[in-house]
Amino acid sequence: MTYRRAAIPALAGGLLLTALLWWAGASVNALHLAGTTEVLGGRAAAELEHWLAPWSYDAPASLRYNAEATGGAGGVAATDGSRYLSLYATSMQIRFGVLFAVFMPGALLLVRRLPPVRGRTTAAFLAVWAWGLVAGMLAATVSAPWQIASRGHGSYRFLPQLAGSSSSGQQITVFAALVAAAATVLAARITTKGAGPLPLRQVPARAARLAATVGTTVVALSLLVLSYQPVAASIQTVSLSGRLLAEPGEFLRTWLLLGGWAGPAGAPLGTWLLYRVADALLLAVVWWALRKLPVLLAPATVPAMAAGAVCATVIGLLARQLLQMALTGAGSGMRWGLVQLSGGLGGGVPAALVWGLVAGLLTALTLRLAGGGAEAGDAPAPALPDPPATAPAPPTALPDRSAG
C-alpha cells in the first residue's frame, strides 16, 4: 500500500480517536447530574468519573478551589491562581495534540505494512487498536509535567506523580481506541478496494520460531522475574539523591513491570494456578504474534517489527486482563459491577512499550542472523519461462526448370 492510500485511514482514525476522548472528557459534568447516581449507582458513577477526568478540560475541583482561595487575597494572588488554571488548560492542549501526533504515524506505518486485505484484516485491526492505547499513554505522559505544575507543588514527589499520570485514563482509551481502530481498518479496506490478497512471505519456520522465542523471553523477564513480589518490592524502594528524582521506585515499577504475582501462600492452589493461566496467555499471545509478524508484514522492516511487537504485547496484556476480569467476577459471585471489574483494563501499557520495543528489535536481529531477516525473508518471485524461440521456416526449394 502506498503512503497516500495509507494516510487517509490513519488520518480518519486519529481524528476520531481525538474526538472520542475529547467528548468523553466533556461528559464528566453529566455524571454530576441529579439522576445519574440513581441510574448508575454512586460507586459506578465515581469510577466513571475517575476514568473520564484525565481527558476533561474542566480543571479538578481541588484546583479550582485553590485558585479561588489564592485569588481572593489580591491582584498578585489572583494572577497566580489564573496561571495555575492556564497551566492545566495548556496540559490538556498538549495532551490532545500529542495523542493525534503519535497515533497518526503509528497507524500509517501499521496500515502500510499490514494492509487490511484478506488474511491480514484481523491483524491490522488488533495492531491499530493496541497502538491507540500506546498513543493515549504517551499523550498522558508528555503532558503530565504541565498538569503536575498546575497543582502548585511540581517538585514534590515528581516521579511518582509522573508515573500516576502515565497510567491514568487508560480504561476509556481502550474503548475509544477500539472504535478508532475499526474506523481506520474500514477506511483502509475502502482505499484498497479491488486489491487482491497479498502473498505471504516465505520465512524459514525454524528461524521464525527461534526469533519469537527470543522476543517472548524478554517479555517473560518482566512478567515472571521483575513482577515477582520480592523483586518488585526492591524496585519500588529504589532511591536516588536529589529532590526532583529522589523517589524513582514508582516510576520504574510503572515502566518496567507488566504485572505482579506472589506465591500461593494464603490462597487455594487451584485459584493461584488459574491466575497463572492468565500470565501464560499473555506469553502465548506474544509468541504467536512474533511468530506470525515476519510472515504478515510487507515487508518486515525493523521499525515495523518493533511497532508490531509493542502492539502484540499490548494485546497480550488486554487478553490477560480480560481473563482476570472473568476469574474475579466468577470468584466474587458478581458482587461487583462491570465498571468496577473493568478498572484494570489498559494497565501496564508503559511497560508494554518498553519491553515490546526490546522484544521487537531482538526478534528482528535474530531473524536476520538466522537467515530469515527482513531482506532475506522475501521469497523471490518465480521467474517466468522464456517463450520458445520460433525456428525460422526453411526456404521452399523452387523446382529446377532448366531441364525443360
List the helices and strands and how they pair.
Elements: H1 3-26, H2 36-40, H3 42-52, H4 61-71, H5 75-113, H6 121-150, H7 158-166, H8 170-191, H9 205-226, H10 229-236, H11 249-256, H12 269-296, H13 302-331, H14 338-341, H15 349-369
Helix pairs in contact: 1-5, 1-8, 4-5, 5-6, 6-7, 6-8, 6-13, 7-11, 9-12, 9-15, 10-11, 11-15, 12-13, 13-15
Description:
With 404 residues, the protein is an all-alpha fold. Helix content is 67%, strand content 0%. Helix 1 runs antiparallel to helix 5, helix 5 packs antiparallel against helix 6 and helix 10 packs across helix 11. The radius of gyration is 28 Å and the shape is globular. The C terminus is likely disordered.
* Silhouette: globular
Number of strands: 0
What characterizes the major β-sheet? none
Average pLDDT value? 84
Comma- or semicolon-separated keywords:
single chain, 404 residues, mainly alpha, 15 helices, 67% helix, 0% strand, disordered C terminus
Short description:
This protein has helices spanning 3-26, 36-40, 42-52, 61-71, 75-113, 121-150, 158-166, 170-191, 205-226, 229-236, 249-256, 269-296, 302-331, 338-341, 349-369. It is mainly alpha-helical and 404 residues long.
